[in-house]
Amino acid sequence: MTRPLEGRNALITGANRGFGLAIARAYVEAGASVLMCARDAALLDQARAEVATLASDGQQVLAKPGDVSRRDHVEQMAAVALNAFPQMHILVNNAGVYGPLGPVDDIDWDAWVQAIEINLPPTRSRASARMPPPRPRSFASLRRSPRRCTTTGLTSMR
């Protein structure tokens, strides 16, 4: 079985359900060690336990609750990742919320601001805070999930 991500490390935000959880499963099956991050600690722990069953010897499946709209949480996520892994190869910035729905006059202003703080700030100032950028040819860097924004290309596929 080919494991193209063997020896690679990934931080995945929004990893407790949906697309983020699917990415965590796929990355672990492909050989990567992962740090899964999301706001709901109980759901995140369940997701981590599920993904951990897919890991082989030498792989790590870690979880760190946190909210990407809070800089202190982002810095804690980065610190956990950098302490756990010798090098970060992949960042999946999948965290996002729908926010309030409805006519502008009817929506809750604070809820709208929170959605903007989670969904719009550039990756560099949130999920990659204090993390060194991937080294050239260090594999890949997915900056935002395709459903949220845009992605940058792979730097190397070896």
How would you explain this protein's 3D organization?
The protein has 158 residues and is α/β, with parallel strands linked by helices. Helix content is 31%, strand content 13%. The protein has four helices and four strands, in the order βαβαβαβα. The protein has helices spanning 18-29, 41-52, 71-84, 109-119; strands at residues 9-13, 33-38, 61-65, 90-93. It is elongated and about 55 Å long. It starts with 8 loop residues before the first strand and ends in a 39-residue tail after the last helix.
N-to-C CA distance:
16 Å
Q: Give the percentage of residues in beta strands.
A: 5-15%
Instruction: Give helix and strand order, one letter per element, not per position.
Output: EHEHEHEH
Q: How does the overall form come out from the CA principal axes?
A: elongated
Strand order of the largest sheet: 3-2-1-4
Low-confidence sequence ranges: 122-127, 136-158
**SS class:** alpha/beta
- Mean pLDDT figure: 81
Radius of gyration: 16 Å
Number of helices: 4
Largest sheet: 4 strands, parallel
Number of strands: 4
Helix percent band: 25-40%
| Assembly state | single chain
